[in-house]
Design a protein that fits this description.
The structure holds two protein chains of two kinds. Chain A is elongated. Chain A contains two helices and ten strands; from the N terminus they run βββαββββαβββ. Chain A has helices at residues 37-48, 82-89, and strands spanning 3-9, 18-24, 27-32, 51-52, 55-61, 68-73, 77-78, 94-95, 103-105, 115-117. Chain B has three domains: 1-119 and 256-328, FAD/NAD(P)-binding domain (3-Layer(bba) Sandwich), CATH 3.50.50.60; 122-254, FAD/NAD(P)-binding domain (3-Layer(bba) Sandwich); 334-429, no CATH class. Classes of the chains: A alpha+beta, B alpha/beta. The A-B interface holds A 8-9, 11-12, 14-17, 35, 52-57, 59, 65-68, 70-72, 79, 82-83, 86, 100, 118-120 and B 37-38, 44, 47-49, 59-64, 67, 146-150, 175-176, 193-195, 197-199, 203, 302, 396-397, 402. The complex binds flavin-adenine dinucleotide (FAD) and iron/sulfur cluster (SF4).
Chain lengths: 121, 429
């Protein structure tokens, strides 16, 4: 059996607890070092399917005030898709008016998650 | 002259939250004066997520967080003067501003809230030898260029200083296709939040060089390379450890300074440690009727705390403007001075906000914020009133990059008001 220990830092709150996640054949056996339950959940997810929210900004036409509109993935996406999301945003231009929450790219990079606007323009 | 009950200088998160609180506390006429042509302050360029975890229980981006406060302020009928720069505040609470449409104009305030935020420490404050080539940016300027103007400052980047803005920009530049060679930090610990080190550096394999600094910048017209050396315990570069990094851009994330020129001219006493105003339990400065909150008071790393603090400042300013505070003061004017406790930063603590507390005037509970002066493990945060320890709480980790707080209870202080001072200090046991 392949036993592995991975050291992580929980990113769920400013305490930043140092976690040790123990895996056997890729299956999480235990999480230690966490102060609360959120750390346990984070440790399990981070070693099996880590995710992140991606934020960026894209150009907007027709706004007197803004040249760019900030955007984000509506929920977290797999970490290994971050650069695919960035590529999908290349060349995207918006036209004013834009409202917060407007879909900028639907189902970005096949993640099933939309990229939405986070600024009005 | 125009007249308002509460006038707020700066329309960032602090100014917006103070305005909302002032309206909710019963002031009819509340004005926010903002020099930019939009509200939201620095949050407009902070497009990453992680704002509002405490306030809204969701992770918002900077612009979304600002929009919530902006909408609420609009709903409540707060008035705004955008594109207006405040040039002067007097001790009799007259605010002068200048705008292209109106020229110079004066506003009489019942109370003033300072919410001007902070600015970045510029390169000049560092004294790195070399020419002054193009390609050196503060991280905040670069953040504005990339996120709001859509311009890339460069392709091959070195970042000096591990403040949060530098960490966030390391990731942002990487996502936009630049290569970030490293983040060099003079101190043996990072000034940024741990979660930012994980999400912005570790995720992308960007090295963080602790106890390192830039010793030389190459290039006359444009940065061509920087030299980075290890430093000893006195923060002096160690000879022979210099490494050359070819790059076209050097970003500086070496600290923020509260923006207090206006406060100084108004006669507001400033703290040499925080560089912000010295305030009492109601966040009132040394000038009666002038209050302060947000980054102009002391540099915050989480906007949630800015909003909480500004809410308190807005409420206290409203009470002052509506005369509630002066009634209190009249009731016990002579005794008042002696009945305040001085708050002191003891062992391991760099500063506290506020600096004085009059228990009779404070709310049931008061949040005192402070920063520690080094990284500590397994210490106790202790609060002493006179010689008596009234609080003793274990913390696993304390770091200068993360603001700490203790909540003091009015009842505890009222009965000990003769002790004269409160000390917050770190203890080993
Ligand atoms: C470059 C930079 C980047 C930052 N990035 C982050 C980040 O990524 N995440 C994070 O949590 N925190 C970040 N911070 C910290 C951030 O400043 C606080 O979280 C929060 O925005 C502070 O709010 P504030 O209202 O006190 O200041 P600000 O947001 O700075 O607002 C101050 C406002 O006052 C206005 N003003 C100043 N002087 C005058 C005047 N004389 N007349 C009229 N108006 C005036 C300014 O234009 C501005 O709109 C950053 C700070 C800086 C400087
Ligand atoms: S384990 Fe809990 S307490 Fe520790 S950093 Fe994570 S969320 Fe915070």
């Amino acid at each position: 059996m392949a036993r592995e220990e991975r050291e992580l830092i929980c990113i769920n709150c400013p305490l930043g607890c140092p976690l040790v996640v123990t895996l056997e054949d890729g299956v999480v056996q235990s999480v230690t070092g966490n102060t609360c339950k959120r750390g346990d959940a984070y440790g399990r997810k981070e070693v099996t399917s880590p995710t992140r929210i991606v934020t960026s900004s894209v150009p907007v036409d027709g706004s007197a005030r803004d040249r760019m509109v900030s955007v984000k993935t509506a929920t977290d996406i797999p970490k290994d898709k971050i650069f695919d999301v960035m590529s999908a945003l290349e060349g995207v231009r918006l036209s004013a008016p834009v409202a917060i929450g407007d879909v900028v790219v639907a189902n970005v990079a096949g993640t099933g998650v939309d990229v939405v606007a986070t600024r009005r323009a | 002259m125009l007249s308002y009950e509460v006038v707020i200088i700066g329309g960032g998160p602090a100014g917006l939250a103070a305005a909302i609180a002032a309206r909710e506390s019963g002031c009819e006429r509340v004005l926010v004066i903002e020099r930019d042509d939009r509200l939201g302050g620095i949050l407009n360029q902070c497009i990453h997520n992680g704002f509002g975890l405490h306030t809204f229980k969701e992770e918002l981006t900077g612009p979304e967080y600002a929009a919530r406060y902006e909408d609420r302020a609009q709903e409540l009928g707060v008035e705004f003067c955008l594109g207006s720069m405040v040039i002067d505040v007097s001790s009799d609470l007259v605010v002068h501003a200048v705008s292209p449409e109106r020229g110079v104009y004066g506003v009489q305030a019942g109370a003033v809230v300072l919410a001007m935020g902070c600015r970045e420490r510029p390169r000049g404050a560092l004294g790195i030898p070399g020419y002054r080539p193009a390609g050196i940016y503060t991280a905040g300027t670069a953040q504005r260029l990339v996120n709001m103007e859509g311009q890339m400052p460069g392709r091959e980047v070195v970042i000096l200083g591990s403040g949060d803005i530098g960490l966030i920009m390391a990731r942002r530049m990487t996502l936009e296709g630049a290569h970030v060679a490293c983040v060099a930090e003079l101190m043996p610990y990072s000034g940024g939040l741990k979660r930012n080190i994980v999400q912005c550096l570790d995720d992308y394999g960007i090295p963080l060089l602790l106890s390192h600094t830039v010793t030389r910048i190459e290039g006359r017209k444009r940065v061509e390379a920087v030299w980075i050396a290890k430093v000893d315990e006195q923060r002096r570069p160690i000879p022979g450890t210099e490494v050359r990094y070819a790059c076209d851009t050097l970003m500086l994330s070496v600290g923020l300074l509260p923006e207090n020129e206006l406060s100084r001219e108004a006669g507001v006493e400033l703290s040499p440690v925080t560089r912000g105003p010295v305030v009492d339990e109601s966040l009132q400065t040394s000038v009666p009727g002038i209050f302060a909150c947000g980054n102009v008071l002391h540099v915050h790393d989480l906007v949630d705390y800015v909003s909480q603090e500004a809410d308190a400042a807005g409420r206290c300013a409203a009470h002052y403007a509506l005369g509630q505070r002066s009634a209190d003061v009249q009731a016990d004017e002579a005794a008042e001075a002696q009945r305040a406790l001085c708050l002191e930063a003891g062992n391991g603590v760099r500063y506290t906000v506020p600096s004085t507390i009059a228990p009779a005037r404070m709310d049931e509970r008061l949040t005192v914020r402070f920063r520690v002066d080094n990284v500590y493990r397994d210490r106790f945060v202790s609060v002493f009133v006179g010689d008596e320890r009234i609080m003793h709480r274990k913390k696993r980790v304390l770091a200068p990059g993360e603001m700490e707080e203790v909540v003091l209870r009015r009842a505890d202080l009222l009965e000990r008001v003769d002790a004269g001072h409160i000390v917050i200090r770190l203890e080993e046991e």
